[in-house]
Each structure stands twice: as C-alpha cells, then as structure tokens.
Amino acid sequence: xxxxxxxxxxxxxxxxxxxxxxxxxxxxxxxxxxxxxxxxxxxxxxxxxxxxxxxxxxxxxxxxxxxxxxxxxxxxxxxxxxxxxxxxxxxxxxxxxxxxxxxxxxxxxxxxxxxxxxxxxxxxxxxxxxxxxxxxxxxxxxxxxxxxxxx
Length: 151
Fold this sequence. Notes:
Elements: H1 11-32, H2 36-56, H3 62-71, H4 85-106, H5 110-130, H6 134-144
Helix pairs in contact: 1-2, 1-3, 1-5, 2-4, 2-5, 4-5, 4-6
C-alpha cells in the first residue's frame, strides 16, 4: 500500500464478490436453460461493472460504494486496510473473462458464454465465501515475476 493512497476495507471487495457471484449464478441458470439473449445481456451488464472497477478503480466500484454507505457503518472498523491495486487488477481479470463470454454469447454460442460465466462465478464465489481472490493472487505473482509494475 502506498503512502499517498489509503487502503481499502478488505470486506468491501468480498461484499461485491458476493453480489457478483449471485448475478453470475442467475446468468448460468439463464445460459443453461437456453435463454441466450437474456444471459448475454446480463453478462454484458456484469462485464460493464467489472470494467468500472478495473478502469475507475475499486474505490469507485458501485458495490464498494453500497458497502461503504450501508454495510460498513454497522461493522467494527477493519483490523487492517489492504492495498487497492490487487482487487482493482482482479476487476480487470473479471472484465476480460466476462468480455470473452459476452462476445461468444453475441455470436450465439450460449454454451461458451456459460463456460466463461462459470469461470467468473468460481472466482467470485472463492472471494466472497473464503476471502481468496484469484485475481489478487495473479497480481502478486505477476509483480514478483516483474511482468507488471506496482500501481
């Protein structure tokens, strides 16, 4: 975490991941029931929210704002804050995965859309339930490998 950029409450991204996991579960249901257009539109909306988090930063993410306004005031302060860069990177990973699913769904490949929605669901589920952020782990590994630079 940089000195000029305060950390974020780690419970915020987990809250957002829970919302995302639920939406992706609905999307999977739509995809498996053959509702290709609604599944594609829902995944496009999820993709747009991932883009918002990736490009505007996790601090400006809609679910983060909802968490700060409605949930965090009812909780004890976090024991420690975390760097915003790994969850922001994770939003970018979610964006890429869901973008591929949307593109495939737009071409009528609903089963492929469901596969990419399922990949995103697994990541969101792991983060929301277990606090294990796959995109954050990727960020750290890419930093160590010097593939990317710290944000």
